[in-house]
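Hi team,

Filling in the usual template for the complex we talked about on Friday. All components are listed, including any nucleic acid strands or ligand strings, so the model treats them as one assembly.

SUBMITTER: L.P.
PURPOSE: interface mapping
COMPONENTS: two
RESIDUES: 591
SEQUENCES:
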Amino acid sequence: MSAAKRAIRDVYGDTLAQLGRENENIVALDADVGSSSKSIVFGKEFPNRYFNVGIAEANMVAMAAGLATAGKIPFANTFAAFMVLRAGDPVRSLIAYTKLNVKLAGTYAGLSDSYDGASHHAIADIAFMRSLPNMTVISISDPVEAELATRAAAEFKGPLYLRLSRAEVPVVLDKASYDFKIGKGVTLVDGADLTIVATGYMLIKALEAAELLSAKGIKARVVNIHTIKPIDRELLIACAKETGAIVTAEEHNVYGGLGSAVAEVLSTSCPVPIEFVGIEDVFAESGDYEKLLAKYGLSAANIVARAQKVLKRK
Amino acid sequence: MSLKPESKANLERLCAKFRQDLIKLLHGIQTGHPGGSLSSAEILTTLYFEKLNVDAKKPKDANRDRFVLGKGHAAPMLYMILAEKGFFPQDDLVTLRQLDSKLQGHPCALKTCGVELSTGPLGLGLSAGLGMAMAARLDGLDYRTIVLMGDGELQEGIVWEAAMSAAKFKADNLLVIVDNNGVQLDGTLQEIMPMGDIAAKWRAFGWHVIDIDGHRVDEISTAVDQAKTIKGQPTVIIAKTVKGKGVSFMEGQSAWHGKPISKDDYEQAMKELEVTL
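RESULT (copied from the run log):
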């Protein structure tokens, strides 16, 4: 594991600008958080293709829909909480309903905007987005994945939600060998005792947990599910069959997110014990990001505890 | 350029026919929105038969004008016009709102040829129309985007977000027409949510405003042409109309926003409309 860290949003901003250089049909929109989402990097280089609509998220997303009907590839940017809550209507009624080719980039997802408090945390966005027909949902773990996923989003045809963190995250994936394909989960650590299925920043916690478990003689498999919808059913079923127990880990409410998606697949196809690591249906609070994650159970230690628990249920 | 007498006569004949066909259709299926469809008859007919550059043979032509029915509940009137223009067969009209139909209760761009944007949830059409107008600018194309909105629709907050944006982006290739019939689902605008001076509101948001009688095809035609000459800012035409226009007992009545038409009401309505045809 490399110690190098980069902010996910910086990688996203740089990648978006690079995509802008490669394809003139790419346009970007923001709702007055361009300096936070880093869409401003694109905006500075391509002012004519950048629409900052002010603090008006619904208008931004509906405008993106209009641009997409004419063949543009819009990236709409705002905080994940507001992408869902303020712009939810055009996301559903225009983009998902009519399969418009709009990329919805929700930054500051999970608790990553930690000091701003629960008003700015996004813990229901996966649940909303994956309940919309036609929507593809991608959650980004590390800086390498941020670049590859943003690039894949631009090439993908159709409505797509890109879940981005504000946080500085260590590089854990090897850019040269990492194979990012929308809809395909990736096994990063092999193991036969149980599978930890993680998404977003919780992948890093899952990798730490696997090391801690290994020291206790428990061999955990670690799978990165970056595409929460459509989810990689084959891989999940194989993991359930081969390891017999699952722990899911996500920076989202345990209701409706990755854990629910995994349970939906396995309960009908290969029922095995599952434990869920996520926000336990509460509003969190302001504070230091890592301390906040730890307090609300989004830690390697809690994944280890849940792993030990799920093994007893095997 | 003012409307030629024969064009005016043709539009008026079409409007009378569409009104009759609408009542027949909505009576037949016992669902749908007569009031707001009737108030926008002249606006929609004038746009589609005199103004819009659209061709059923080339429905995806890059430089076609884009029409967005912001007030999606007026779909029945739009569908009759699209059928008349040849976007789909007339026989499809009776399938409106029924299972397996391409004609949904509110317009669906995926299912219906000629529908540019799915609408229904009010207020989204203007923002999306602005997106279309910006795409035209980026592509160096001279097509216009025209959005027809209800006056009740103006109560949605997103409308004013979009109005601000269109002024900021100097969207002079975007035209809004407000079907100002003064009535919404639960009652009159005055009762439910008074809108005050609608023209002053748009002006304050940076728009050029043209006031017309929305049942006079010549006024509609002139205003749409005039809007094209306004540069550096978007234009809104506020078209004064009557909800349920043409059927005496529906006129100005919120109850006819979306109500099944009984046999007696149907016969009475058809009698009145036959006189105008």
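MY TAKE: The CA atoms of residues 82 and 114 of chain B lie 7 Å apart. The interface with chain A takes residues 62, 66, 108-110, 116-118, 120-121, 124, 127-136, 138-139, 145, 158, 161-162, 164-165, 168-169 of chain B (CB under 8 Å).

Thanks, L.
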